[in-house]
Amino acid sequence: MTQKLTHLRKQLDEIDDGILVLLDKRMKLAVKIAEVKKKIGKPILDIVREEDLFQKLKDRNKKTILPDEKMLEIWGKIVELSREMQERC
Fold it and tell me: How far apart (Å, rounded) are the C-alpha atoms in residues 79 and 77?
């Protein structure tokens, strides 16, 4: 049983590493988007885009075991961080 637990935790560590890499990529893209927004005079906050994103995520979430509320809470933090990164540009 201990070996199984160790193996499962190793899988979690690998997934965590992948999530971190993807979050880094997302933040780098958010910064690039901010640069474009500034050049074209568009505000950082785009409520319509965020609402559309959250609706798409809720639709996709039907295939997972995550409760919508918790998934949206996590994504809300990701979007908030993206906005903060954009505002720093």
Answer: 5
**Spatial contact of 89 and 34, defined as CB atoms under 8 Å apart:** yes
C-alpha of 74 from chain center: 8
Cα–Cα distance between 79 and 84 in angstroms, integer? 9
Locate 14 and state its tokens.
Answer: 């690998």
Q: In the chain, what are the domain boundaries?
A: 2-88
Residue written as tokens 């906050």? 45
Asked if 82 and 53 count as a contact pair (C-beta separation under 8 A), the reply is: no
| pLDDT tens column, 63-78 | 999 999 999 999 999 9
Is 2-88 a domain of CATH 1.20.59.10?
yes
Q: Provide the whole-model pTM.
A: 0.90
